[in-house]
Design a protein that fits this description.
This protein is an alpha+beta fold. Helix content is 19%, strand content 12%.
Length: 80
């Protein structure tokens, strides 16, 4: 499975309107942190997921900067 290839996953809000880049409704917007050596395998496995499902289009883009996986630091005290 494609998620087993990724070392991290981040779920974002679905893009709508002009940001979605296509027709139809965007129902998922996820980012996966994939080692460069596994990128082609990841693309192939993800692409196969929607291959036989009518009305479903799946788009894989990237590589993207890993900022999608950054989290806010916990604030437990005063800043120094």
């Amino acid at each position: 499975m494609a998620s087993a290839i990724a070392s991290a996953r981040s779920v974002h809000r679905p893009q709508q309107g002009e940001w979605s880049g296509g027709r139809g409704e965007n129902v998922a917007n996820e980012a996966y942190l994939v080692p460069r050596s596994e990128a082609e395998r990841f693309r192939a496995e993800v692409g196969a997921l929607a291959g036989d499902t009518p009305g479903v289009a799946l788009e894989v883009t990237g590589p993207w900067a890993p900022y999608s996986f950054a989290t806010e630091a916990a604030t437990g005290g005063a800043a120094v």
